[in-house]
Amino acid sequence: MTRFARQDAEDERSTSVHAESAVSHKVLVAGAHGKVGQEIMAVLDRSDHDATAMVRTESYVSDMESFDVETIIADLTEDVAHAVGGHDAIVFAVGSSGENVEGVDRDGAIRMIQAAEEHGVDRFVMLSAMNADDPESSPDALGDYLVAKQEADERLRASDLSYTVVRPGALTDDPATGEIRAAAKLDRGEIARADVARTLVAALDTAETHGKTFEILAGDEPIGTALEHPTTDA
Prior knowledge:
By secondary structure, this protein is α/β, with parallel strands linked by helices. It has a single domain, classed as NAD(P)-binding Rossmann-like Domain (Rossmann fold, 3-Layer(aba) Sandwich), CATH 3.40.50.720.
C-alpha cells in the first residue's frame, strides 16, 4: 500500500479552513476496497475520525490491514443493517464498474440509505458522478450507470439525512494536490481519486455542504475553501 504515502502538506491545505470546527465521527466507508475507497481510508486513518471499512467479501479484508481501522463484511445486494449500526456518518464510495449497476449503484445505495435512516445515522456523503443529473447528455456507455446514480441521489435527497452529494469528473490516479474546483455545474474534466477522497472526508464537517449536490474537478482552490461555496456557479 505504498501508494498511500502521507501527503501532509496537501491534507493540511485541504482541511485547515475547518480544523477548528471539526467533529470526530464514527464513519462507515462503503466501498472501502475500491480505488477511491482506499484513498478515503488513508485520509481517515490519519484523521481524528473513527473509521470502519465495509468490504464485500472476506478476501478483501487483508487489504485493509495497512489501515488502523475496523473492517466489516457486508454485501450491498443483501441486508447491510449489521454494518450500519453504531455509526453516525457514512461515506458511500461504492462503484459497480459497470457490472450490476441497478443492483449496486442504485439498489445498493438505496438499501444503505434506508439502513442509515433506520439506525439514526446523521451524515451521509455520497460519491456520485458528473452528469448524474442529466444521463441523456452522456455517452450511451454511461447511460445506465448515470441513471442508477441519479435515482440513488434522488432517494438520498428525499431522505431526512444530513446529506452531501459529490459528483466528480473523470477519475485519474494522479497524486493529490489538495486543490479543486467545486460548483453546481462544471464543464467536463478530470480529477485525481486522491483529491476526491479528501473532498468526501472534508465534507463530513463542512456545514456549507450539508443538503448540497455539486460537481468537482481538479482546480486551484484549497479543498476546504472550495467547500465553503460548493454550489456557486462556475
